[in-house]
């Protein structure tokens, strides 16, 4: 896996997108689950996809799941939610995300996959406010929460890069 700055990942995507419709996968990495969201073929809209169980013992299986998704959905990169700390300290959540990426890299299954980090600030809290009035069963609540947190991360990224891309092309 190869880290790219957010703008660079989108520039690479727009280069390849004219030939074959490439999409992005958004990830909300938690202690127990990884919520997934996928962009549309025009990379404008994020939609919920699924939730993967996260354990140290199943990282190979998760990497295989990602390989399958890359193939099935024509994914070109990952946008991974990252809890940026305004005081530049590494929080426990930030360490968890980095360990997850390191573990995925060690599998060797995702060579060439590009990824970037995107601020996940308030994504879970926003989803929580939307879901609370629905009084969902706790299992459904957690699954929906993780998927839609991933949607919030990916949609925030897509909105930013598309806005930046549009303003650059009008100059």
Structure characterization notes:
- This protein has one domain (2-165): 2-Layer Sandwich (Nucleotidyltransferase, domain 5), CATH 3.30.420.
- The protein is built from 5 helices and 6 strands, in the order E-H-E-E-E-H-E-H-E-H-H.
- Helices cover 49% and strands 22% of the residues.
- The longest helix has 32 residues, at 138-169.
- The model has no long low-confidence stretch (mean pLDDT 85).
- 34% of the residues are buried.
- By secondary structure, it is an alpha/beta fold.
- It has a 6-stranded mixed β-sheet with strand order 1-6-5-2-3-4.
- Strand 3 and strand 4 form a beta hairpin.
Comma- or semicolon-separated keywords:
171 residues, alpha/beta, Nucleotidyltransferase, domain 5, 6-stranded mixed beta sheet, 5 helices, hydrolase, ribosome biogenesis, cytoplasm
